[in-house]
Amino acid sequence: RTRALLADGGAATVAPAVDDPPWACAMWRAFGRTLRDYPIDSADVEAMLQGLAADLSPQRMASWRELERYCDCVASSVGRVCVSIWGLRPAASLERALALASLRGQAFQLTNILRDFAEDAAAGRRYLPSELFGKHRVSPEDLLRWRDPVRCAALVREAASRARASYEQSRPLDALIDPGCVPTLSAMTAIYRALLQRIVRAPRLVAGPQRARVPTVRKAGIALRAAFAARKARAR
After folding, report:
1. Which domain holds residue 31?
2. CA–CA distance, 220 with 226 (Å, rounded to integer)
3. Nearest CA among 56, 77, 63 for reference residue 135
4. Which residue of 103, 130, 139, 217 lies most exposed, with the fewest beta carbons within 10 A?
């Protein structure tokens, strides 16, 4: 259905399936309208579909390059679509904004991968690349069991440093986005960076049994600041 809408620029009529939930028709209409109303690159939506399809089977990443391709499908593509919907400030470069959004998506996804390492492993998925485990001379099972704390912590912090670098490199993105949408992006980024900081401070969190998380009070504070900033932007 998604591909049918993509092929016709969102104008196609997608017939509901017998087993669709009640909200499905409205969802597909809204999706089609979004494709019509915003300059979304169909290649980005196709990339999302490829990423979702890849996650239906066990994943084993061999290299950072392979992981970057996966992250582009499941996260960077989302960032580029968001930029297409949010819009830019006058005279901002779309090409630069899309490139920076790709980096921010990489940062978000790598943060997710660290947070979800134990949960993904239980489902047969392992996104941290084999070359990272080889470099630190530990196995995925070693990391899950935290058998060599020094090496395991070094591995986690190296992966975290890559995420941190992508956050820093994508920092100029906020200055390119339409001011009314910046608070949303800023709040998302603040929450994810806070999550990454918790993992860096306590690398063993990636091994479970509970996922690293940002306290609700802190997230609420970030959300309130974002809401205030959004109201201020609308008042200008």
Report:
1. 1-37
2. 10
3. 63
4. 217
